[in-house]
Amino acid sequence: MTILTIIGARPQFIKAAAVSRLLRQQCRELLVHTGQHYDYGMSQVFFDELAIPAPEINLGIGSGAHGAQTGAMLAAIEQVLLEQRPDALLVYGDTNSTLAGALAAAKLGVPVAHIEAGLRSFNRTMPEEINRVMADHLATLLLCPSSTAVANLEREGLTKGVHLVGDVMADALLMALARAQDRSTILERLKLNPGGYLLATVHRAENTDDPARLQAILAAFAALDEPLIFPVHPRTRKLMGSYQPPPHVHLIEPLGYLDMVRLQQAARMILTDSGGIQKEAYWLGVPCVTMRDETEWVETVELGWNRLVGADTGRIVAAVRDFTPPAERPPLYGGDGHAAERCVAQLKEWR
Ligand code: UD1
């Protein structure tokens, strides 16, 4: 059996790191990189550090408006599917690459498997929400990280081919943690003490493309009185223009996974609008302040380790100053490091 896997953006490289190696022990996998993320620090560094197999095909489709980017991927993936004739297609998450892959395959009658199925923010203004709803309805194998995700699919009438497998990002994190301890020198390079700094990331369109929200977030960073390390996503960098940070805010380039894991693990608190980082913060036992109005990872909020504060300067600052998480941190989203094995088992049984 041949499975054609579509990846294109940073979090998909991390998920593929957990799944690809196992998948290749069971069947033939062709990895297709759409090119959505193309800077060294957004793409190749993950392949190098995490030993992800080199993509067999790179479509080289980078920047562009949503329609143009997704459309170019759709046409190119269709061509690959016609040439390679795989038995199935695998997509991850909620990016434009996910949607393009799922749609191209479904139109050609190639069965689609979706890892990280069933996540919902219930906010249709997010491009990711559109992408994940569409991908789930095009897929016939839906591999879910949480029981909330399974319930979300059930409400949309999707019950066939739905399996709770846990989160493959936990597998990737566990793999990276040991390596990061040995190989990452980020704390030394940035002269940081464990627990002595905040770590922030911002890249969601809802925050970066709305000047008022971006300004409110940057104003909150400026109002804090401890070192804040801010690896800046290229999208955010472009939209920040000539922003000059105050001395305690350290803008750095996007990081590879090992440095990012080490930096998260030793942070006093994490401020983010990323989905993956909310979970990683939980698994690492670092309190997380999420600068969004809703989250797909509701369990992290319910358990008291994640606070949703929107893009509100006062709420961000208040959360950073007086947020003490509870003593309890029960296992979440599988988190046992075996989700990828469960995904591969379902993929094998499915066909
Ligand atoms: C995408 C995903 C989002 C995911 C995120 C992870 C969609 C709609 N969004 O958002 O779900 O959480 O990836 O990072 O698919 N750029 C560079 N260099 C790069 C990559 C991007 O300069 O290596 C620029 C692009 O030219 C573009 C901007 O950053 O102007 C945004 O890139 P895009 O691919 O649209 O999505 P992300 O914001 O990264």
UniProtKB/TrEMBL annotation:
Keywords: Isomerase. Belongs to the UDP-N-acetylglucosamine 2-epimerase family. InterPro entries: UDP_GlcNAc_Epimerase_2_dom, WecB-like. PANTHER family: UDP-N-ACETYLGLUCOSAMINE 2-EPIMERASE. The keyword Isomerase applies. The keyword Transcription regulation does not apply. Residues 27-347 form the UDP-N-acetylglucosamine 2-epimerase domain. One of its GO terms (molecular function) is isomerase activity. CDD domains: GTB_UDP-GlcNAc_2-Epimerase. Gene3D superfamilies: Glycogen Phosphorylase B. It holds the Pfam family Epimerase_2. It comes from Candidatus Viridilinea mediisalina. This is UDP-N-acetylglucosamine 2-epimerase (Non-hydrolyzing). NCBIfam families: wecB.
